Amino acid sequence: MDATELVARAREALDDAYVPYSEYRVGAALETADGTVYTGCNIENANYSNSLHAEEVAVAGAVRDGHTEFARLAVASGARDGVTPCGMCRQTLAEFADADLPVFCDERDAVREYALGELLPNTISFDTLEAAKREE
């Protein structure tokens, strides 16, 4: 699946978003190492801290089915404003993907590509936590 098709899947996921508060729909499409695609949409809650982000919904579906290696991610919003994953979602992605994971963001007239490491440099990882333990 190429980037354009993956972005199209993220756009399709927008239709399922539950956003009565912000009215800002987000969809994500996550391709696993074996080519399976999981989609997710944002699901809001009146208590905003309980809301789910599209990327984490996609990751949860993939991990639930046994996938922990990801090939690439596409994110789209209803505004087609080039939305990128938030910091929390970037950290979640970094748990399962390398810094070179391609992240495609849907803009009105283009698709912008980032590497996960560009979006989240110096991530917290198993290795950084283990190094901190050794330093104590």
Automatic annotation (TrEMBL):
GO terms for cellular component: cytoplasm. The active site is at residue 55. Its EC number is 3.5.4.5. Its cofactor is Zn(2+). It is an enzyme of class 3 (hydrolase). It holds the Pfam family dCMP_cyt_deam_1. The keyword Mitochondrion does not apply. Keywords: Hydrolase, Metal-binding, Zinc. SUPFAM superfamilies: Cytidine deaminase-like. Substrate binds at residues 42-48. GO terms for molecular function: cytidine deaminase activity; identical protein binding; metal ion binding. Residues 1-127 form the CMP/dCMP-type deaminase domain. It catalyses: cytidine + H2O + H(+) = uridine + NH4(+). Zn(2+) binds at residues 86, 89. This enzyme scavenges exogenous and endogenous cytidine and 2'-deoxycytidine for UMP synthesis. This is cytidine deaminase. It comes from Halomarina ordinaria. The lineage of its organism: Archaea, Methanobacteriati, Methanobacteriota, Stenosarchaea group, Halobacteria.
